[in-house]
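Researcher: Please predict.
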Amino acid sequence: MKHKNQDKISVITVLKMHWRAFKLLDREAPLMFLGSFLHESMNALTPYVNVYFSALIINELAGDRNPEKLWKLVLITLIANAVAALIKAGAKCFKNWKHEGGWWQREKIYGDKLLSLDYCDVDDQRTHNLRSQVSQNDNLSQWGLYRIKIFFDQLTLSVFKIIGAVALSVSLFTLKVPEGAGVFTVLNHPLFLLGMVLALLCVTWLAPACSTKAGSYWVKTAEDMKQRNRISYFFGEEVSRDRNRDLDMRMYSQQDICERYYDTADIFGKKTAIVKAAAGPMGAWSALSAVFSTLLTGIIYLFVCLKAWAGAFGVGSVTQYIASVTALAQGLAMLLKNLGEMRNNAEFLKITYEYLDIPNKMYQGSLTTEKRVDRDYEVEFRDVSFKYPNTDTYALRHVSMKFKIGQRLAIVGMNGSGKTTFIKLLCRLYDPTEGEILLNGINIRKYQYDEYMSIFSVVFQDFKLLALPLGENVACSKDYDREKVTECLIKAGFGEKLKKMQDGIDTYLYKEFSNTGVSVSGGEAQIIAIARALYHDAPFMILDEPTAALDPIAEAEVYARFNEIASDKTTIYISHRLSSCRFCDEILVFDNGRIVQQGNHDTLVAVEDGKYHQLWHAQAQYYQK
């Protein structure tokens, strides 16, 4: 982030950026800002009730001292303060209620955006870098969308402070010093009053201007802080909270190296840009802001006391005018400070909007995917080539093939040969760079995107289970067919384990949300993932290394039930264990992004100079004497 760009943002643009942020948050939590408005307006106005009536009481004590009038003023003051306090307390309760329920909605805004993106952008490192930077700006530095609530509260507070202060202080400038006050009559002269107002406004502006200048160093040092924050957060929090790292952490004492990197990040160390700025110009501007604030207080006291000394008003009014003019200056200073900080915050909102404005480029299509009872679908890759965004290297080159319903298709090849890329293109997570993919003779781009994806059930190699009940994990839904879930679990090979679970399919997985939650092994989790794919009951089933975490016996059982599991589905099976290929009708052998061989096991293994023969015997040698 370059600070020089900050000066190019106009005031109108800054306001538009913050208005957009306000609307984003208000849409997700519509009553949150209403709660803030009610509380902050009352927070600003209630002190004036006490100031106003206290001035009347003091003036009466210093004047006629009428007991009846004093009792009335005291009673009115108590009632007014009690009513104001009651309204303020109610407004605070309403604000806290809506704030707690709505403030974290900004995380929902970021999450919804990620879920709505084209997968190619979700898979892009640039997107994750932006998302990480947005989180750092929000949660670690409290800039970006995080500031909108703060700005709204303070702007509301400052505006109502100004309104109340003006109402109580306007008479300070209209009440005249008596003609017999001698030299003090100059206080009545319009030019003197104008000069005083200008002086107050000038000093009032200088204090927040200096404060804003000090705050601008957060923008200037953002680039340095960004990397330090990422290192600090990763090694200080993320690593320690990730249970998947526990074993390595314990066995290799990785906390030592984590601590070294955490210390190296040194977010607020002496050598960091923000600390150097705080010890230098940032601190100087902050100090200068405090000087102007003190000077402003002195000017107010001097002006009010001079007019009181000259006889323009009573001693009780002194407290009223000092309090109200000071509050007026504070309100104006707060208003100007927040407007200045909004300019600083605009730089951070740029990053937020860069993330939120990532466009969806994939054509969504309009044709309805035919729901065939006979599941007679044919998929064809026609001269498909593909390279990932921001790279010139092809992951797939000139892939042509077709397969029909009911086939068992195995995809094999070494790491990086293009197997997973082939699946991503088939599921339309990406679109081909060249060529086309057809479903029943029609380019898959022409089908409605969500409907096309619904014809696939996929078990990815890096699948995830949620810390929720087993049944909800299988169905991916709160409401589901319990009998079907149980049937799919049994069919996948989870029947015996299910019998041992005290709450059956209502048993929680893991212990995040239930003390009685059950931790499942990697192999058991993989079987649950297969059951999830079965429950989805799509015509195409894709299994990416479905037995990688299974022991040999469990793997053999899955293979033995493979035809039953697949039923009438077209099954695509990716595996490094070539023994699974014996169960398949067709085998595609990938190498360097191309299909170099195609056929069944017996045909391919007989080709001694073929890639499949090489892969098969590389594994077989460890099972032979």
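Model: Residues 1-6 have pLDDT under 50 and may be disordered.
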